[in-house]
Amino acid sequence: MDDSSRTKKVDRAEKGIALKVALVYSVVGILWILFSDQLLLKGAPDPRALTYLQTFKGWLYILATAVLLYVLIRRYAGSLARLMGRLRISEERIRHLVDSVPDILYTARLPDFGVTFISPAVTTVLGFTPEDFAANPYLLQDQLHDDDRRRVLSEIRRAAAKLKTFTVEYRMWHKDGKTVRWFRDSGNVYEDENHRIASISGAMSDITERKEAEARAAYMANHDSLTGLLNQRGLILVLENFMALARRRQQEMTCLILGIDGFGHINDIYGRRTGDDLLVQVGQFLERTLRASDVISHTRNQVVARVGGNRFLMALPDTKLKGAQTLGERILKELGQLKIPAGTEYIRVTGKIGIAGFPTHAEEADSLLSHAETALKRAKNEGAKPIHVFDNAEREEDTQALRCVEAIHRALEDKRFTLHFQPILHIPSGALHHYEVLVRMQMPDNRLIPPGQFIEVAERFGMINQIDYRVLEMAFEHLKKLAKQRRHITLSVNLSGAHFGDTRLLQWLENKFTNSGIDTRNLILEITETAAVRDMQKARTLMQSLKTLGYRFALDDFGIGFTSFSHLRTLPVDIVKIDGSFVRNLHTSREDRGLVQAITNVAKTFNKKVVAEFVENGEILKILQRFGVDYAQGFHIGKPEPSIPFNEALQKEAENTIPHSLDLNLAKP
Asked: Closest by alpha carbon to 389, among 324, 331, 332, 335?
């Protein structure tokens, strides 16, 4: 309780006591005047006694009133003393309570916001003492943050005008002039005895930690925790602002997205910590590069963001596509000089870049980012062109791809994938006991879609695994039927590289080996050389695990990928399939004949069987026979058919020449 309130309460108590004493004294005096003479006449026996009593009447009145006043004053003085005592105790309790509250309690007069009381907690939080506010009643509003002062005073004035409570959050400067604290001020508005707005009282709670936590949460929501760069969510916000500004100024802007090559291999070989260091250093490199790229853009507001595991996006306001391409070429050139330490070694970083521009390719942030991602994917697929600029014609391709994705989903749900079988000729014996399984997607109108029209889309959108499982399931069903017919046929099934590193395929094939009763030597799994080399260690691990179950492997499309004869030694394959691009012109191309013969010789050195694809005429078949190629596949041998023809004589020959199944380790005459 402040001195003013205490004084007013004591003053009211004193006035009450004085009024009571005066009232009692007045009543006694009036009664004495009215009735004292009558009492004397009745009490005096004769005139002499009456005269004697009248002589002492005044003294008696003085004595009686003195006694009365003594009694009254003593009684009320005790009450006043007890009241003062209770007031002191109450004041001490209130002061103790105020001192113990961590919030800053204050009162201020209106309309000038001059502080009339402030609790000692202000010293702990802001460094000022209550005496500082007594010396300068306007210190509270002086310490308000410049960006908050007008808003805070306006909100309190609005609340005061309606006699309402108020709650407002604001910042205040500490006494040191460097530190800013956040407060949540909750207060009330009061009137004076004339019903005029007179004062406010409030409690200021320190919410600095909460505000800092909110700021950290907002920062983390929009930034990558590893590199400190914007993440995709934060980038979208920045892109929307950039695009709005570019739209008003009728300017262009571009997005350039960088993908690091082989990042998964780096994590696998050198560990995730090295991979994280690489990402941090690449992010710092890109920020340095953009700071030095003012010749590309007239603004210095370029932004770098990490939008995925190994992808970085640069937003370039006021930059045309040509300028972005120039910057992309510079980034790739200088990126190759970046060396990331990994133990005693150094990692060289390479990458691919996709570019999309506003408004040429998109007018919304999400679309612009999506088109840049699409351009990056095409840059990765093209190989020879590490920088790809999005083409609006590709938008229609993407639309068609999405339609294809939906068709694949429905075909999987409705089990509308079917198999065709293309024969593979055993050249030395002329026997047909080996077929490659080729998948077709059947549309609702019964049209059959060849794999060339949907496999690439399935790989791009992560659906190839489901197709592979469906094809393998159907291949096992055919092998069961063939086994019941005692037909010794071997099937080759294409397997996507997406399964490498995924143990589910191994478990699935183990179950098939256990439960189906099929001889696994009748199933050959074909993988492309490109897919195997892309993830050599995982491919080798999966192949070795499956070979222990009896499954066999063929290396498909050999010669068009990362062709190296060392792969024939590293990968545990049983068959090498020479890509048809080297076979179809074998009868006219001297170079192709030399290459096919070289592949055949090296393969046999490693004890591998050789299959030549795209055998279109008898002349090519004769050349292959002369080179010692083991198997031939192509339209001259047979086209893909929905069923395997049964030729009793041919089957008998197969049983005599190749007992049980295709023997890949013994040459048959």
From this structure: 324
Peptide bond preceding 359 in cis form (omega within 30 of 0): yes
* Residue 33, C-beta contacts closer than 8 angstroms, at least 6 positions apart: none
pLDDT in tens, 102-140: 889 999 998 888 999 998 889 989 999 999 999 999 999
Mapping DSSP onto H, E and C, the string for 562-615 reads CCCCHHHHHCCCCEEEECHHHCCCCCCCHHHHHHHHHHHHHHHHCCCEEEECCC
Please tell me the predicted confidence (pLDDT) of residue 424. Answer: 95
Dump pLDDT digits (tens) for 336-369.
888 888 878 888 888 999 999 999 888 888 889 8
- Contacts of range 59-64, beta carbons closer than 8 Å, 24 or more positions apart: 61/32, 61/36, 64/28, 64/32
With beta carbons less than 8 A apart as the criterion, state whether 451 and 422 touch: no
Residue 623 has φ and ψ, to the nearest 5°, of -65, -45
Chain CA centroid to CA 242, Å? 22
Supply the Cα-derived Rg of the chain in whole angstroms. 48
What is the distance of C-alpha 436 from the center of its chain? 44
Query: DSSP H helical segments within 201-354, as ranges?
Result: 208-222, 232-249, 263-270, 272-291, 321-335
DSSP secondary structure string for all residues of 468-536:
HHHHHHHHHHHHHHHHHTT---EEEEE--GGGTT-HHHHHHHHHHHHHS---GGGEEEEEEHHHHHHTH
Q: Which amino acid is at 326?
A: T
631, 434 contact by CB (below 8 A): yes
Helix residue ranges per DSSP H, 136-229: 139-142, 149-161, 208-222
pTM: 0.52
DSSP code of 318?
Answer: T
Structure token digits, residue 76 = 């009320």
Residue with token string 């256990």: 514
Distance CA 433, CA 343 (A): 53
Beta-bridge mates of residue 633: 424
Nearest to 468 by CA among 433, 442, 504, 434: 504
CA distance 208 to 375: 45
Q: How many CB atoms lie within 10 A of CB 387?
A: 21
pLDDT score of 509: 86
